[in-house]
Here is the input.
Amino acid sequence: MKPGTFATVFSQRETVKGHFLMAVKAPASFRKAIPGQFIMARLEGGTTPFLSRPFSIYSMYSRGDDTFVEIFYKVVGEGTGAFSRLREGDALDILGPLGRGFDVPPSCRKIVLIAGGIGVAPLSFLAQRYGEGIRGTEIICYLGAVSSETLAGLDRLEGICSAVEISTDDGRRGYHGPVTGLFKRDIDLYADDTTRIYSCGPRPMLRGLQELLNGRPGVCQVSLEERMACGIGACLGCVVRIRHEGEEGSLVRVCKEGPVFDIRDVGFGE
Amino acid sequence: MNVKMGVAIGGLTLKNPVMTASGTFGYGEEYADYLDLNGLGAIVVKGLSLAPREGNAPPRIIETASGMLNAVGLQNVGVQEFIDKKLPYLRTIEPAVIANIFGESVEDYVKVAKILSDAGGVDALEVNISCPNVKRGGIAFGSDPVLAGEVTRAVKGVSRLPVIVKLTPNVTDITEIAGSVEAAGADALSLINTLTGMSIDIEKRIPHLKNVTGGLSGPAIKPVALRMVWETVNAVSIPVIGVGGIMNASDALEFLIAGARAVQIGTANFLNPSVAVDIVDGIERYLSDNNLDDIHDLIGTLRI
Here is the structure.
């Protein structure tokens, strides 16, 4: 049984405009997370925000007997706004790690990350886990943002990845245009079967990536974001259409069967 | 603490009056990691139909003030897969298993009821005539006293199990439906299902839910639920199960004092998966603190 979910805020700061990095001191029972997994977090008491919010795990580490979980998020509404006002020592409830994370097969020698905005969070965790040098895996990241002021997670990625390629919508830094456009330039470099592609970002970006990869040999997993009430497979609020080749497909739970899926299987906008 | 928590609901005996509401607790097993399921009085499983149902297209949920709207549309594995894949686990645990059933026609309800009644391991049926999120069936039966009675009578005719009928609040007078269902032979009533509601994204000028409207649940609806439970308790003589926005033990106690024989915990399970057993403990503590040795010394003791 997974007991008490009581946690406290260890630190919180705004890294780039509107993007907050929060470290939470987790309950002792919190298991080692797989990159791509998430937590459900809820403010204690009160009814605004009412539901828990899902957050990708950005990092996890231990110091002494304590376990810390980091989340990195963008303020988009009332719920995330309330989280952004938490200070050191404030209480919150967390549940996790939840869902199915990224698969990195033993044969993988090159990891390509394609991050759009705050979608960087689970990918940075993946880079951190596999950048620890156990396998000598090369990690290349394509990082896109709306503007140079909102390049979320860049510092950490630069410390882990072999290369970080940048794109901005306003063109003030790096490639001018969507991150998928930048990736398209290099796509032929990543066709061999020891390379794996991982992506997370806004739906239109992921749909664009799906089209780019259509008919090509590369294997790509995406982490999807969806509104959830429970995070544990009961509310059926977070479903997405998943179809394996030649099938009609079905509505499956992002929280339980996901949030990580093979990009070819995802029915975006269905 | 040594208080008697057991209650009887139309032939069904429960060790305590706390159940988990249909659609908020999966098929039980989803929650096994988070609480001691054996601490519950009963588990009401996700609504079952004759054939599997895919449910509505997403987005299906949206948070609202002190609550949420959902339009899941009765996605479920279908009655046969429930019996083959989900029921074996439920048979191994102590709480009563209440199968919530749904159909698009009286014949559908009857078929599902018969199959579950004969399956073994199901302790009661809860007939859903109140789902607001499907085009056919559901609420259409629950908002017409004649149809509500007809479905109830038909299900009672084939079921060897106690039959609970779940009522919708989306009617002018819930006691009229309650009376009709009681007259048709229902063993108990559960109320309320969700209130029909709506929410709009003002940037895109589209509804937040693909289904446009959805069912409102959570603490926002508790006063409405409590009022309807109280009215219904005064209007019928069969047991009433109180449902609607119960977040903690004091909410549950309000329903019991109003006359509910038992309560169901719904949306609260989403926020805190172990809340249902915390509510059992809280009720027990209240009884003990108030020198009541039996839950029946509390039920229906509202002073007006």
